[in-house]
Amino acid sequence: MSVLTCVLDNMGSSCSRSHSLSEAETTENAKTLTGEFCKRQKQSNTSTSSYFLIKLLFQTGFDEAELRSYTSVIHANVYQTIKILYEGAKELSQVESDSSKYVISPDNQEIGEKLSDIDGRLDYPLLNKELVLNVKKLWQDPAIQETYSRGSILQLPDCAQYFMENLDRLAEADYVPTKEDVLYARVRTNGVVQIQFSPVGENKRGGEVYRLYDVGGQRNERRKWIHLFEGVNAVIFCAAISEYDQMLFEDETKNRMMETKELFDWVLQQRCFEKTSFMLFLNKFDIFEKKIQKVPLSVCEWFKDYQPIAPGKQEVEHAYEFVKKKFEELYFQSSKPDRVDRVFKIYRTTALDQKLVKKTFKLIDESMRRSREGT
Predict the structure, then answer these.
(1) pLDDT tens, 190-226?
(2) In the chain, which residue ranges form alpha helices assigned H by DSSP?
(3) Could you say which residues bind GTP here (predicted)?
(4) Domains in the chain, start-ordered, CATH in brackets?
(5) Cβ within 8 Å of residue 57, ≥6 positions away
(6) Numbered residues of the known binding site for GTP
(7) What is the DSSP letter of 124?
């Protein structure tokens, strides 16, 4: 995890200012990510890769051929989503006291079995009008909608509602994914992906050029990337604050926010970061501000002492400031006395808000330049 990137739930990136990365290497890394997703999506939680966001915001963006290459990933997200909801409804109908509201109609059960079977294949078909009609029928089933409202206990991707609302467009014969579609697509960061960029954009003077590492945050990925961090200028740690009521994919007994807390504490104490600047992204604020109105922050053990004040926007800000303070306290508790003077800044982010992300990266660039200049 490290400098100048925007990464989801327990992932990070690092940047240094040396060793340029060739376009061929960058493109090949992205192709590997996209190809591996279709084979591995059921094995791990997924997120928006910083590679795609950085390429869109600070490089040349995507041409039509590149956009088309994400069609299979996006369609896979749809199959994955509907299968999670279908399987979730079946499970809830067996274990919940009010189980009847999770019982899917017989006709839609048949559709659910067919769609679940498709998700289990490696050679699943692309979406078409007939398949979309089936997905819509199942999505609109009251039991599925009830299950969707319980998404925090399922491993349901954040893109679920977005893609379900755009099914007809996704299935068009001449469909070309939009930039927003690509950003919503869930792709696992498997191993380490690199990209070089400047926060002020290409062919402009004044900004630094960074080399970014996008790394997997899952437990089994961390051993692959910690050795990369010798000599980096800064670490960006991305914490998905909306996941305070969710469990890990790889350990459904472990709260995601508690895991984030432990990982942040561990990263702060690594010897390779003794003099390294830290930028904390409190990400997925857009989801957080909706969820906090329905799910109390105190469901997370770390936030059990939280006291709400009033519904509405005031409560959202109050809850956000509480979470921010918790991370600040953890930073100073975990930092040795000779490390507390390193640069530490917190940013509120929404990865899908491109203007906000671009502004945040420029602020980080300015902050780092001032730090090096001693101003």
Answers:
(1) 666 777 777 765 545 555 677 776 665 566 666 666 6
(2) 23-40, 50-58, 64-68, 71-95, 106-119, 129-140, 142-148, 160-164, 167-170, 179-184, 256-268, 285-291, 313-334, 354-373
(3) 183-189, 214-218, 283-286, 351
(4) 3-11+47-62+189-374 (3.40.50.300), 64-184 (1.10.400.10)
(5) 354, 357, 358, 361
(6) 183-189, 214-218, 283-286, 351
(7) P
